[in-house]
Amino acid sequence: MKYQLTAHEARVIGCLLEKQVTTPEQYPLSVNAVVTACNQKTNREPVMSLSESDIQDLLDTLVKRHFLRTVSGFGNRVTKYEQRFCNSEFGDLKLTPAEVAVVTTLLLRGAQTPGELRSRAQRMYEFSDMAEIEGVLETLAGREDGPFVARLPREPGKRECRYMHLFCDDMDSLITAVEAVSPSGDDLQTRVEVLEAEVAELKERLASLLAHLGD
């Protein structure tokens, strides 16, 4: 897959995607605006502290890779940047507004559950219900030109599985995340035995209850 980004590149693109939708009157963004967006403390995980020179280097690299383009002239006294990562005239990656919201939120905050994504992406897209966002995630995971997201195993004690984006080149993070929540063979066997015992106990209680009702 050609959309392989570093964590810092993902942050820059995520910020541009976010601001394009949430503050269109301030878009495209100047270097200073990108610095502020990347380092903001809300809706970011992890919180970063990138310098202006760091951001400029990232912007230059992303322009060379055709993920961004510069906008100058027409009254702009400073160079500004807009994303060409998706839905651009010359790019191949096409996403619906709902998919843009999900991808952007994953780029900015890492792995999240569908419930978290629905809540955090609402400034970009209003999902009608959980079924809609789950459908978007399934589509992104099954894209022929992807996959663009992956579902992680459910963590112990959690009701929902988390999803992570696959636009970064560090696949070690995916492996680590899976290993961290995947039970070992012994643990899995123990859990199965416990569940089987609970089912057997429930069957006995049900049989006893039915017999009592029959009397």
Average pLDDT figure: 87
* Order of strands across the main sheet: 1-3-2
Instruction: Name the structural class.
Output: mainly alpha
Which outline best applies? elongated
Query: Per CATH, what is the topology of the largest domain?
Result: Arc Repressor Mutant, subunit A
Number of strands: 5
List the helices and strands in order: HEHHEEHHHEEHH
Provide the low-confidence segments as ranges: 174-184
Q: What is the CATH architecture assignment of the largest domain?
A: Orthogonal Bundle
What key phrases describe this protein's structure?
single chain; 215 residues; mainly alpha; Arc Repressor Mutant, subunit A; 2 domains; two-stranded antiparallel sheet; 51% helix; 10% strand; elongated
SSE map:
Blueprint: H1 7-22, E1 29-30, H2 31-39, H3 52-64, E2 68-73, E3 76-83, H4 97-109, H5 114-120, H6 130-141, E4 149-151, E5 163-165, H7 172-181, H8 185-214
Antiparallel strand pairs: 1-3, 2-3, 4-5
Helix pairs in contact: 1-4, 2-3, 5-6
